[in-house]
Every structure is written in structure tokens, then in C-alpha cells.
Write a structure and sequence with these properties.
Number of helices of chain A: 12
Radius of gyration of chain A: 21 Å
Largest sheet of chain A: 5 strands, parallel
Helix content of chain A: 40-55%
Shape of chain A: globular
Structural class of chain A: alpha/beta
Largest interface: A-B, 43 and 43 residues
Number of strands of chain A: 5
Oligomer: homodimer
Strand content of chain A: 5-15%
């Protein structure tokens, strides 16, 4: 019996459509999923197997001249669980086919270029599952809230980003954008854990509390991102992330669904199979 | 009860010492391991947990100014199982802390530089587990056997490689060199599978049979590598690879042992923990 308890498919249940209101989000909800945690973990393991097989096919496709790739864009406030998605979801597939890139404060070299320069350089090559831990969206999130550039500059970026993503998608890369959203209360719990456990101190940054204090401004910036960049070729998925198991299950499902949508076949042999078998037999 | 059935530690049982004779290798053996396959898989899962925790500590170390890294160098003939090590061993740790690089035929840009140029560029940064799927050793293996450069050129490389690796080790990177060795019979079985299964055709290259036909020359080149580059700072481990479970168990153990040897601690907080807890409480 199938363990599938998605009553509404994840890519529909989570998609940010026009009029989506971030302020009304229930961070503890499990949109589309009608099962409990155990059932969610069972389903995630099952889909993880699918994902592994699908990603191998994508890799094979890329190794034989194919042009398709997948790009997972992960955004979220501190402690939203981006790292857990990388470890537990991306960690289910073959490292050989993964191209992971984290975007922090731009380096001096990066600052000499347009904000999309480092992003373009990190796009996955054909056959790869690219993962962006933060992304060009920081250039309309932290950069907007902290007033790092003037409003006319960040204000122009939404359209620039849409044009950029349309170009990337047209070149063959399926883009999966995920915004992980935790409640202020859950965020406080997770920050407290980082402060109380010495093995987690390295994950804590005093700046996290400054950001948390400006949460309304960040929510406003996220709302603008959802309003202006959830396009048909690259829609946003807003994932309530207070329940880690749900967030991981949802991203697994979004990735598996996207890879299935590529509808790839195993590449045909570009050599004479019978002749090669005969050569092998002759070698003994 | 511990599942540890290493009678001789892997790093001792597998180390290529002076006088090691590759021609005498039993490819089906399980050096040092006194258990069966089930016990091996159980132990591997257990050590995989250790490896995950150790690698997180290494990553934390790197994020807080530490200088240590680990580099796994994988060599082996076609079908020896390098890809399986990446998928099943490296796949057990957090993708965030892994820097994987495959080295194929040099690109035009790479050819304009010294053979170690692309290798230096791919060295893991502090905190990372770097993995080389093939490496600079191709420059004294395929390059030697296929006579791509004259003998005096490749002949000088053994000492160059030793000097290079000594420099890398001195800078803080622990180097784990693994040569996976399959028997000609097992290799034929694996190549046959790639030919008989359409979902494996993409892994097959007619050149693999040409290489297989020159196995004595490749073995001679591997023997020279073991004789001349199994140094104290970067010894070779020769892993019989006819039994995939053993090869994966052995590499898991070698990596876990190496990470344990770094003896890292969780980085101390570089902020006032009590003050931050007070700030968090004040935010509510």
C-alpha cells in the first residue's frame, strides 16, 4: 500500500499565488499532508528512494549531452532549517550529482560585480541538482531591510530576477524556490538551544537577534518577494517550518515531483552493445 | 555491545608499506576484518554515525577560523567502485561539509598549466572533507601507460607529488589515499552488467576494454605509485574491492579514524552567552 497521504500535491498546496498573505501563515501547519509525523517520515524515506533514482537518471542525462538541470533555491530566516534540508533531503541523493553553494556576505571580488554575477557562476551544469543555501534573493531581503543599497536599486531587482530566472529556465534548468518560515516562538526556542548547548555555539551569531528584532521588516520584504517573483516558470513555495519533519517531507516531495516532470529516459548506448560484449568475451 | 570486528585496524591492515607487492593481492580478501557481510554493514552504519558527528565538528572548526581539513584521494581501475564509495560512504555525511571533485581528461585550460594546477585549485578549504575521484595520480598512471608525456617527465612527478602532499599536509589537511583494486574476473562481471542493463549503458565506455587489455601495464604503474608515494604524511591504503561491502566499510573506517586523529573540540563561543540569553529573553 502506498504511504502517500498528500491530499493536495505539495507543489499546489504550498505555491505562493497572487494574493498570498504571509502574515496569515500558520507556521505549525502541514498544508496538503493528511498524515502524522511517523507517516510523514515513512513517506519521506520512500520518496527519498525515488529521488535517488531520478537524480541518477538526471546525472546520466547530463553526462551524455543532455541540457536539463534542477536548481533548489532555499531561503528563510535564521533557524528556519535550511541546513537541515541540505543535510536530510539533499543528503539522500548521490553527492556526485549535487552542486551545493552557500551565499553569505559578498566577498570583495563578488562586490566588484553585479549581484547576479556570483549567482550565474554557481548555476548547476547539465545533469546536476544545484542547491543554493540563500541566493540572489538576499539582494532584495537583507539588502532591502538593512538599506545596503538605495530603494531604486533594490526596487529594480524584482524584474531583473524574473528575467534572469526565465533565461535560466529556458536553458533547461527547472527552478524550485522554497521559503522556509518559522514562527517567532519557534525561532526563539531554536536560538535558545544554540545558546544553551556548547556544541551549537558555533551556529550562533549575535546578529541573529538583531535580525529577529526587525522581523516585521523582513516579513514585509519576503511578502514583496512572493508578490513579485512567484512566476509561472519559477514559482515560490512557502513551507511552514515549525515542524521540521514536515518541511523536509515537503521539500523532498517538491524535488521528486520536479524531477519526474523532466520525464527523462536512460540515455541510449552510443556504442554497439553486441560488439562490446563480444570484445569482453574475447578478453576472458 | 560494540560491533567492532576489526582485528587489525584498517589503517594498519591496508597500508602500503615498503615491499608491498600488488601482484600478490587477494582482491576478494577482507584484511583486518573478522566479521561477515552483515556484521560489516552493521559496523559501517555505526561508524557512519560517528563520521557524521566528526565531520560536523570539522565543519564547525573551519567556520570558526580553524585550519584543518581532510582530503580523500580515490584511485582505482574502471569499475573498482569509486562511485560507490562517493555515494555510500561520502553520502553518509552532510553535503554542506563535502567538496567533491572528479578529475577527467584535462580541459584545454587545464592543459595550459602544470598538472598540479587543477589539483591545487580543488584542495578542500579548512573545515571541509574534500574528495578527489581520480587525482594527480592519473598523471603517473594513465599518462605513463599511454605515453602521453615522455618518461623523464612522468618520472620526475613522484618526487614532485610527495613534495606537494607534504606541503598540503603541513598546511593542516590530513590526506587519506585509497587505491581500490578489483580482480580481472570481477571487473569483467561489472563491465558485463553495464553492457547488459540499459540503465547502466551510460556508465560504459568502449575505452574501458582497451584499458583492461593493458592491465599488466597499469598494475606496473600502480606498483610504482605505491613504491614511491606511500609516505609517512600521506600513506597509500590498498583496498581489495571485489566485495563492495568491505571496500565501503574500510573507507568509512579510514575516514573516521583520520577525523578522530584530528582531535578537534567544539569551538568556544566568541560572544557572551549569558548576555545573549538575556537579550533573547528580553525579546520575548
Amino acid at each position: 500500500m502506498s504511504s502517500d497521504r498528500w491530499q493536495t500535491p505539495a507543489h499546489e498546496a504550498l505555491r505562493a499565488r497572487p494574493g498570498f498573505d504571509l502574515a496569515g501563515l500558520d507556521h505549525d501547519a502541514t498544508p496538503g499532508w493528511e498524515g502524522d509525523r511517523d507517516q510523514g517520515e515513512e513517506r519521506m524515506a520512500e520518496r527519498g528512494e525515488d529521488l535517488l533514482a531520478l537524480q541518477e537518471k538526471l546525472y546520466a542525462h547530463g553526462r551524455t549531452g543532455g541540457t536539463r538541470a534542477v536548481l533548489l533555491v532555499l531561503q528563510g530566516l535564521d533557524t528556519a532549517g535550511k541546513g537541515g534540508i541540505v543535510r536530510h533531503v539533499v543528503g539522500m541523493v548521490d553527492p556526485q550529482g549535487v552542486a551545493l553553494r552557500s551565499f553569505g556576505v559578498p566577498t570583495p571580488e563578488e562586490r566588484e560585480h553585479d549581484y547576479l554575477w556570483r549567482i550565474r557562476n554557481a548555476l548547476p551544469r547539465p545533469g546536476y541538482l544545484g542547491v543554493f543555501d540563500r541566493s540572489h534573493y538576499e539582494d532584495v531581503l537583507v539588502v532591502r531591510v538593512e538599506e545596503i543599497v538605495p530603494p531604486d536599486v533594490w526596487g529594480a531587482r524584482y524584474d531583473e530576477i524574473n528575467a534572469f530566472e526565465a533565461e535560466v529556465a529556458a536553458a533547461g534548468t527547472a527552478i524550485v524556490k522554497v521559503a522556509l518560515m518559522v514562527s517567532p516562538a519557534e525561532q526563539a526556542l531554536r536560538l535558545r538551544e544554540r545558546l544553551e548547548r556548547p556544541d551549537k555555539h558555533w551556529k550562533y551569531n549575535p546578529g541573529d537577534l538583531d535580525v529577529r528584532a526587525r522581523r516585521p521588516a523582513y516579513e514585509e520584504a519576503y511578502q514583496a518577494v512572493l508578490d513579485r517573483t512567484s512566476t509561472d516558470v519559477a514559482p515560490w513555495h512557502v513551507v511552514p517550518a515549525d515542524r521540521k519533519w514536515y518541511a523536509r517531507l515537503a521539500v523532498t516531495e517538491l524535488l521528486a515531483h520536479t524531477l519526474e516532470g523532466l520525464d527523462l529516459a536512460w540515455p541510449p548506448a552510443d556504442f554497439d552493445v553486441a560488439a562490446e560484449l563480444a570484445r569482453l568475451d574475447a578478453q576472458g
